[in-house]
Amino acid sequence: MYADYAYLIVALPVLAFLLCLFVGWHLPRGGGFLTVLATFAGLILSLGIFSEIYPDKIIHQSMPWFANFNVGILIDPLALVMLLMVTFVVTLIHIYANGYMNGDPGAARYFAEAALFTASMLGLIFADNLLQLFIFWELVGLCSYLLIGFWYRKPSAAAAAKKAFLTTRVGDVLFLAGIILLYNNLANLNLALKPGEYLLQFPVIYANLAQIAPDQLTLIALGLLGGAVGKSGQFPLHVWLPDAMEGPTTVSAMIHAATMVTAGVYLVARMFPLFYAAPYGLTAVIAVGAFTALFAATMGLTSFDIKRVLAFSTVSQLGFMMAGLGSGAAVGTLAVGVAIFHLIGHSFFKALLFLGAGSIIHAVNTNDLREMGGVGKYMKWTMYTMLIGSLSLAGFPYFTGFFSKDEVILIAYEYGALINMLPYIFLVLAAVLTAIYTFRMWFSVFTGKERSNYAKHESPWIMLGPLVILAVFAFGFGLAAQDDFYKYLDSNFEHYDLDFVELGVIGGHALEGEHGAPAVEGEQGAAAAEAGHGAAAEGEASEGEAGGEEGPGEPWYIQILPIFIALGGILIAGLFYWDRVKKFDPSQVTGDKDPIRKLLLKGYYQHEIMTGWFAETVVYGTALICNTIDIKLVDGWLNWLSALVLGFAQHVRKVQTGIVQNYVTALVLGVVVLVVVITLAKEVGLV
Amino acid sequence: MIPLELYILLASTMFTIGLYGLFTQKNGVKLMMCIELLLNSANINLVAFSAYQPNVNGQVFALFSIALAAAEAGVGFAILIALYRLYGTIDLDNINAMRW
Amino acid sequence: MISNAISLLIAIPLLGAVLSFYAGTKAKFVALIASLIPLALSLQMYLEFDKTSKIMQFVESYNWVPSLGVKYTVGIDGIGFPLVLLSTIVSVLVIIYSWGETKKPNQYFALLLLNEVGVLGVFTSLDFFLFYIFWEIVLIPMFFLIGSWGGPRKDYAAVKFFIYTHVASLVMLLAIFALYFTYQMPDGSRTFDMLTLLAATADKTIFPTSMLNIIFASLLLGFLVKMPAFPFHTWLPDAHVEAPTAGSVVLAALLLKMGGYGLFRVILPMLPHVDKAFVTIIAIIAVISIVYGAFMALAQKDIKKLVAYSSVSHMGFVTLGAVAFTWMSVTGAMFQQFSHGIITCVLFMSAGTIQHVVGTRVIADLGGLADRMPKFAVIMMAGFMASLGLPGMSGFVAEFMVLTGSFATLPVYTMIVVFLSVVTTAAYHLWAMQKAMFGPILKKYMNVHEPHAYELFSMAMIIVLSLIFGLQPGLITDIMGTAATQVMEPVMTLTQMGVI
Predict the structure, then answer these.
(1) Domain assignment present for B100
(2) Which single residue of A255, A638, C135, C458 could bond A260 by disulfide (Cβ 3.0 to 4.6 Å)?
(3) Does a structural domain hold residue B86?
(4) Which chains touch A (3 or more CB pairs under 8 A)?
């Protein structure tokens, strides 16, 4: 019954968008309650659908659109958990925004755009074909543009919005190329489609993957990955994410926690069979992910803007998710479960952290960590909810982040054992840094002395309420949901006509379940398997049934390493930044002149390279060169031609003397010449 | 019957006189008159040939030509009058505002 | 079923043009009525139009100059009808947009209507003679619109526009004569009938390939200049910059479509019979137009010139889709014609509105206008988004179909377009938007205000249309899909269709 109304999950926010856009100006708080209600209705519907289809059904509705394309709704386990997460987190963010945006003259516009943003993200999730996904994908990009540029009077906001749109657009180009390639490859198969089946529908894609040539699969996978890299802020297209802080904090929370950036991870998860079948697909994914995780974490260490710290942490955590998905080369579909679990856990604690940061900024009126300090005295609720969020992000045992992130690290280890250790090392280092920068932020904000004269009050309950709810999830979700979650998501691709063994052969992967005897690097894997099983008994719950039994296990020290990572990181942060145990001053380690510090502060000079050099010099320079060519050459030869004609005419028209006798002379002479010529011609016999 | 040669002689004399006028005269009215001479010499030829070779085509052409000449004269003199009002002269050497 | 629907469609604006010329200050009312009637008529025709039929519909044929084989033959199929619809819609909106025109309004509206007559004639004529007459008629009102209501360099622009396109038309006329004088009907007479002549080009004994190549190239030149495609595009920016807003809108939305229409109607049926090198040549021209147009737009300082170059870029998709010659790409190219026709209106209207609200179009001099003109900013933003190919608006559907379809036959060219143009297109739109509308409001613009309601109305209507056709492209792609199938089959003459 709920399934019949699945389309309302998107339709209601769209309705809220229209209402807010046209009549929101006359409603209290810009009509924010409409957006909240619409999203909340989506949550109810999603829960209803969950109760109907859990654990072994899917919903697939479809209708023709135009040409060879359709619109449809596909709710399988993967889509369902995403729907639940997005509607839930976004509802809370919208509630919070009702407090946060109160009094802003553009509130109606904010809620309209936020509603559209929600609708696009939800539409992206339950799309049943790649084209529809792409459409909502682009709409998400549009809404992020609108929302980041919400305070459009600020030049930096307008510039950041443009940068976000263009950077993600670079990824979208690759995504589009991937879709075009995929479509043409499928079209070339001349499939006998049943009525109601369309080429770009996910079930059709899944079912026919094995028939596409492997090199084409790799190209398609790289294209789609390009889209994901753009949207999910992976290196090298992550440059827009930190700048995206120019929008209201609630926007940052939405973009970074629940929507937008998760879309890229979702895309890779959704197309996981394709990446799995493509020979270099997952290798590219894990390479990008692991590198980004570490890369972004280093930048998070030095940022002074609280929102930027969180932004870099988002980029880093998305790297973890990508790396998790990439580990699928070793662990198969389990990787989808692990990555999505981290995605969802992350969305809880990152939303919490952003909203907490918003609460602080709302009160303190600055983003700068150096101007805060001791805020905890005045904002108890914010402090403790953010502590939970920070612990979760740092991966403190028994918090959500602990289960989710550590599972990623573990499967990366399995990937390492089978194929290449480098991603694992990167991820471990990134995890240490995560703990450090998270608590650097927390300690500098809430403890110590007031470093500037800021307003001292707690935020209203409309803002604290969502914080508390999110805190509960950021703490408890991991422990409560973990096992069922993996099982449920592992079943995701069982609903389709898919054979992972066959796809694995195409992709050249060690087959899942072939227990420690992979074709590629046999001895390493076997050793890992032996060592792993000894430790499996004492392993924590996260290593549950799905991975532990089949894949190669991990030695005990690998299993407990994450705990020390978290504790160690927090300890290091405390030694530097917590006034009660402070042992070192950051300036003892790095001075102002330190080149590494400068490099990190400048964010590896990406702004200079990407915007300054590439966009403004290369692209705009090309445009200027084209312009010169156009004026000088393309239009130039035309003007040259007309100048030539005019110049010739200048001379020729001198013949017109204006004296009648000259004309008569010419006339008579002409006649004479004609007569002579004709006569001569007759003489020689030409005529 | 008067031989054809005489007609041709008359016509060519008229034509030559007209042409001479065109070469030498500068007054607009005189030029118009010369042009009329040219036209009429052609008309004489047309009518004469038409009479010697029994065929009315030539006479029809002559009629056309006369009508045309009349129209031309009408327009021409109108222009000359307008020019005279504008410049106070119809000496064509002085009326050259539209040359290059 | 309305009898003589197409003749009415052409005659009513013509009558309206005459009446509004004599209507003095009441001209705008006459013009509005005279453009609303064809709109109603074309909507009625849309309802009656058989979307699955490949034969000409609403055909009318009368002898005109029998001794020369000239006939007055009009009819529409899936190639022409969407453009007829586009013309009637755009004409109404342009007239509404120009409601406030005070300089010689009677002539102004008469010329706009005359333009509508010309384009409707081009899209419906099935006789080359008639086709050419309408093709040339269009030049005249546009020449005067640019020359009388234009900007500072209007004379240069008007003359350049006229001569450039006219020379190209003459080349095309020569090709038409070549067709006319080569092909003889079975009874020995000559004909200007378009479909008969096009069907005959398939016959190697009548038109040897070497000869057909020349004819083809001449026709192609005529159409590519009109499109306009690189390197024949330079008349367009000048004409646009100097033309009054309504002139620009009509020029971009309707006149350019004549070139694209020629591609589908005349070029594609001949394409299989000419040298294969032409495919490469046209594809290269298309790709350069798209990419180069986008880069040129990025370099422009005048917002109207930017929009003009965006037209070059977008019309390149039409060329690309047409020459790729797959069902999907041809359908997409036809849809791109329609879609660009709609979207470009709002872009030029935005540029025009900025011009007469603020007094300048130089992007660097603008800033923060959204602050004073929020409604206009929303509409302009929506228009720019539609133009950069945002999904949900019609431009995306068209470009997606063109790219997806073209990849099958021209993979390399398609990928060049994808990689070089998509981001650049977004870049120049967003850059212009950001500079003109966002940021702090400049002091000198504190007093600007929202544009007139009629301007906002016509722009908003276009956004609505773009959304409708973006969300439900099937409304018009069904027709185009049939036409695309038809384009790829041998040409059927009217007799073979059984309509005469």
Answers:
(1) no
(2) A255
(3) yes
(4) B, C
